[in-house]
Amino acid sequence: MRSMTGYGRASCEVGGHRYVVELRSVNHRFLEIKQRLPWPDGEIELLIAQLLRQKFDRGVISVAIRDEGGTANSLVQADVALARSYATALHQLRQALSLDQPVTLELIAAQPGVLRIGDDSIGHDEKWRQLKAGIEQAIAALLEARQREGTALTVDLSARVATLERLAIELRALAHDTPEHFRKRLQARVEAVAKEVDQIRVAQEVAILVDKMDVAEELTRLDTHISETKRLLGETLPVGRRLDFLTQEMHREVNTIGAKAQSGPIAGRVVDAKVEIERLREQIQNVE
User: Fold this and answer.
1) Domain boundaries, the chain
2) Which of 5, 107, 102, 94 is CA-nearest to residue 56?
3) DSSP state letters, 202-261
4) Distance (Å, whole) CA 145 – CA 27
5) For residues 252 and 113, which has the higher predicted lDDT (pLDDT)?
6) Which CATH class is domain 6-73+122-146?
7) Digit-coded pLDDT (tens) for 66-122
């Protein structure tokens, strides 16, 4: 089981430039991808999104790619035609403003685009091939981080499910004792107002009450949901949506038990179960 939060980082070289790829993910009901690239390229954004959709099912994943500049082996290129244009324009500007300062090589070289680091002539496919390697390494790091947090979540969720399982056993035992409890209570009330007690009538009334308060079906369904939750906690595939659905169903069954079983001890266990289910539901929002 994996969490939806995590961080992954990697670097790669593309056309003589070093790029750092950072992936961050947080909780979300569905999969949402946000990208910030150092250059506008819709096709590469689409390819990155396809890579991420193959690996992740839920969460907001933010992709940031940062240009760290040239590497030690980078090729430095000069755009001579552009440098001449800058030189001409700067000379004209100097004369127009009647300035004495010379137009130096340093000034011309500092203009945008005159000196370029790296090979900007590489094709689009080669550019993607080089960038993809760094993105895949960052994805692997993010998956590992989400898996580590998922392992910790599994421990916590398993403990809460074990508590729910114990409460369900106690509810079943209390529900089993309900008929005798109501028979004694009804008989005591009848004896308090009548000299003679019709045991057959008392038995009939108890049977009617017990039928109205029977929670056997709800307890069986609750046990089934708990068993399925335990099974899903051991899965490696994304299970967050199914776990979320199961907590809703468990809450529904516990609510019904509380409404039908008019018993103080049962009501106490129902409150405890609701609290544990809510805690379980909150943690499941972190599960992919």
Assistant:
1) 6-73+122-146, 76-116, 147-284
2) 5
3) HHHHHHHHHHHT--HHHHHHHHHHHHHHHHHTT-SS--HHHHHHHHHHHHHHHHHHHHH-
4) 14
5) 252
6) alpha beta
7) 988 765 565 667 778 888 898 899 888 888 888 888 889 888 888 887 766 655 667
